[in-house]
Amino acid sequence: MGNISLEMNNQMKRGIQSLANGLDILDILVEADRPQGVTELAAKLDLDKSTVYRLLSTLASRSYILQEAESRRYLPSLKIVSHGRKIINDIQLRSVAKPFLKQLTQSTGESSNLAILAGVRVVYIDNEDSIASLNVQAEIGQVAPPHCTALGKALTIQYTPDEIKNLYKEYELRRFTTRTITTIDELVTHLKIVKQQGFATDEEEYYFGVSCIAAPIYDHNNNVVAAVGISGPSIRMTSERIAELAPSVVRAAREISLKLGQRM
């Protein structure tokens, strides 16, 4: 057992060191003013060329770097730029939306949430909790399915039926309550209604006792980039109250969209 544990520990150390070396290569390529070759990188990192080449091959296979055809030198790919831009956009989005989340919670008395779509998952990136003794709270980083949540429906509001089918082609529309939509055709029909009215609702489709309203947020290209919504206990968030509060949610989404440069 002692030899096995020692070998596992050594493997872990080697893995950590390889990761560190790979990140060092990325740092050099990003900061360099020209593409770098294997020999240059090996000298800068004090590593043998075979190790550097192996790390470069791994980074290239994951599309984080590119190799020039003629010089055979390496440079960072736009994937790094894309990741950086996404982080910047998410930070900007949260900064722009925060005052509206606070205002929405104050005016409605319910918890407000900001979310984005990552694959087939709704990801909460900010929230403002209600001070009511009975409330619904979501944590930043929490994920949820899009087919049965108001935020998820708002995030997929501009998808065509074919795009919806493609999005869910390898994803089961899991039933969470007796009110959950569980077929693609039903979801497509439902999203048409959501698009017409400009907001989405979830009346105990994900959790019993919880109801939500959400509206899409658009960027300067008029693409849906996020959604804002409110959540509360169904005993308070009745169908009548949802109808009363929906305009406030839509208005918050519109104001955030305008701040992000949406063209009306």
Concise structural overview:
By secondary structure, the protein is of the alpha+beta class.
Outline the fold blueprint.
Layout: H1 2-31, H2 38-45, H3 49-61, E1 65-67, E2 74-76, H4 78-108, E3 111-118, E4 121-128, E5 143-144, H5 150-155, H6 161-167, H7 184-197, E6 200-203, E7 210-218, E8 224-233, H8 239-259
Antiparallel strand pairs: 1-2, 3-4, 3-8, 4-5, 6-7, 7-8
Helix pairs in contact: 1-3, 2-3, 4-8
Description:
- This protein is of the alpha+beta class.
- Helix content is 49%, strand content 18%.
- It is built from eight helices and eight strands.
- The protein has helices at residues 2-31, 38-45, 49-61, 78-108, 150-155, 161-167, 184-197, 239-259; strands at residues 65-67, 74-76, 111-118, 121-128, 143-144, 200-203, 210-218, 224-233.
- The chain has a six-stranded antiparallel β-sheet with strand order 5-4-3-8-7-6.
- The longest helix is centred in the middle third of the chain and has 31 residues, at 78-108.
- The model has no long low-confidence stretch (mean pLDDT 87).
